[in-house]
C-alpha cells in the first residue's frame, strides 16, 4: 500500500527492535523502500505502549559435541514490539491504531483505507 498512501501524502515508517544492520538486511531481502527505524532498547516502542513481554526465546545451548551445539536450553521470554499499525498526524498525535496478537498478521488493506478516509478524509 505504500505507493497508494504516499500519493495521499502519508509517509510509511516501520519501527522494530532489530539492529540497524538487521533492518538493512531485512530491507534488502524484501525489496522494501520504506524507512525502517531501529529501536534496539525499545525506548520509542515503550513510549507508544506497544511492548510485548511474552515472546518466547529459544536458544541452543546445553552441551556441544565436536563444536556443534546439541539440545536447547529452557525457553525464556523476550521483549519485542506488538505488531501495530498507526496513523499519526503531522502534530505527532495518534489518530488510529490497529494491533494484532499474532506477530505474523498486519492490518489489511481495506481497514487501513477506511482508517485513512475517516482520519484524513483522503
How does this model look, in words?
This protein is of the alpha+beta class. Among the domains are: 1-40, no CATH class; 84-122, no CATH class. The protein contains four helices and eight strands; from the N terminus they run αβαβαββββββα. The chain has helices at 2-7, 20-30, 43-47, 109-120; strands at residues 13-16, 35-38, 51-57, 60-65, 68-72, 76-81, 84-88, 94-99. It has a two-stranded parallel ribbon. Strands 3-6 form a two-stranded antiparallel ribbon.
Tell me what portion of residues adopts beta-strand conformation.
35-45%
Residue share in helix: 25-40%
Q: How are the strands ordered across the major sheet? A: 1-2
- Assembly status: single chain
Radius of gyration (Å): 18 Å
Run of helices and strands: HEHEHEEEEEEH
What do the pLDDT scores average to? 82
| Shape assignment | globular
Low-confidence stretches: none
Key phrases:
two-stranded parallel sheet
Task: Give a brief outline of the structure.
This protein has 122 residues and is of the alpha+beta class. Helix content is 28%, strand content 35%.
Amino acid at each position: 500500500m505504500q505507493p497508494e498512501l504516499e500519493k495521499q501524502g502519508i509517509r510509511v515508517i516501520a519501527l522494530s527492535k532489530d539492529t540497524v544492520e538487521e533492518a538493512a538486511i531485512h530491507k534488502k531481502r524484501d525489496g522494501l523502500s520504506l524507512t525502517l527505524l531501529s529501536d534496539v532498547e525499545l525506548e520509542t516502542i515503550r513510549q507508544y505502549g506497544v511492548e510485548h513481554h511474552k515472546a518466547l526465546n529459544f536458544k541452543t545451548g546445553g552441551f556441544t559435541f565436536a563444536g556443534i551445539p546439541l539440545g536447547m536450553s529452557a525457553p525464556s521470554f523476550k521483549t519485542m514490539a506488538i505488531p501495530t499499525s498507526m496513523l499519526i498526524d503531522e502534530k505527532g498525535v495518534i489518530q488510529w491504531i490497529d494491533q494484532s496478537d499474532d506477530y505474523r498478521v498486519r492490518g489489511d488493506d481495506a481497514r487501513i483505507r477506511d482508517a485513512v478516509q475517516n482520519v484524513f478524509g483522503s
